[in-house]
Design goal:
The protein has about 250 residues and is an alpha/beta fold. It has helices spanning about 1-10, 10-30, 35-40, 40-50, 55-65, 105-120, 140-150, 165-175, 190-200, 230-250, and strands at about 85, 125-130, 160, 180-190, 205-210. It has a five-stranded parallel sheet with strand order 3-2-1-4-5, sandwiched between helices. Helix 9 packs parallel to helix 10 (about 230-250). It holds the Pfam family DUF218.
């Protein structure tokens, strides 16, 4: 239930108008404090505007993305690992689309980086996740295996675990196969703080490999118009903060 709410309400375009309507409703049904609720109802609108701007949205996500340093493909750090783990994101099961159009950026970057790592050193790659969408004909792990094979990874070095529908359940599916192993964990930069915690709960040592950064390393103040990508960046950050709250206080 809590996960469903977090997934549903993480977008400012959802929770912002919802809070506005709730406060407007309270201003009409609560006899005392009518004007206070009317003034408070302006805050969700300002929040949506704030989230739609480049600089504020970067400030939201940057603390998540900067928790772990970038690890280059050529680095020796990850080559001491026993295996590479790539966490799932999504896939569009539409044969009418070109191959590259079937993958959102999160999946594309995670898989591509893992394939480049494999090219540098042939380590086993572990994938997890079952069927994530109603229209999918196969598991997410299967789709990601296909992606990696297309980029030259040997199928003999890919281990798929066909369970999991979110980060927690994916790690639960992977953990029995990674006991006493040192793992290079590839996932989105903002996703890593939460993902690392789940592996550590299972006693698995990981080297975080961040990809899909939605902010630059060096950021300067900028004024720009509201835009959809900034809203998306804010949504990703809020989703992870809610996930961390769930992980810390409800697990």
């Amino acid at each position: 239930m809590l996960q469903f709410l977090a997934n549903s309400l993480s977008s400012p375009m959802v929770h912002g108008p919802l809070l506005f309507l709730i406060l407007q409703l309270l201003s009409r049904i609560v006899p005392k404090g009518k004007r206070v609720y009317q003034w408070l109802s302006c805050l969700p609108i300002l929040w949506v505007f704030f989230c739609s701007l480049v600089y504020p949205s970067v400030l939201l996500i940057k603390p998540l993305e900067d928790q772990y340093p970038t690890v280059k493909v050529s680095s020796k750090l990850w080559q001491n690992a026993d295996a590479i783990v790539v966490l799932a994101c999504n896939h569009f099961d539409d044969e009418g689309l070109p191959f590259v159009s079937r993958w959102p950026q999160c999946t594309m970057q995670r898989n591509l980086h893992a394939a480049l790592m494999y090219k540098e050193k042939h380590l086993p790659i572990h994938l997890a996740a079952g069927i994530l969408n109603e229209l999918d004909s196969a598991s997410q792990a299967h789709y990601n295996k296909t992606f990696l094979m297309t980029l030259g990874v040997s199928p003999n070095d890919i281990y798929t675990h066909l369970q999991g529908h979110d980060t927690e359940s994916e790690v639960d599916a992977l953990a029995p196969h990674l006991k006493n192993k040192y793992v290079a964990l590839v996932t989105s930069a903002s996703h890593l703080p939460r993902a690392v915690q789940y592996f550590e709960l299972h006693g698995i040592k990981v080297l975080p490999i961040p990809v899909e950064h939605l902010s630059r390393k060096n950021v300067s103040f900028t004024i720009g118009l509201p835009n959809a990508f900034s809203l998306y960046r804010s949504e990703r950050a809020i989703h992870e903060y809610l996930g961390l709250i769930y992980q810390r206080y409800f697990k």
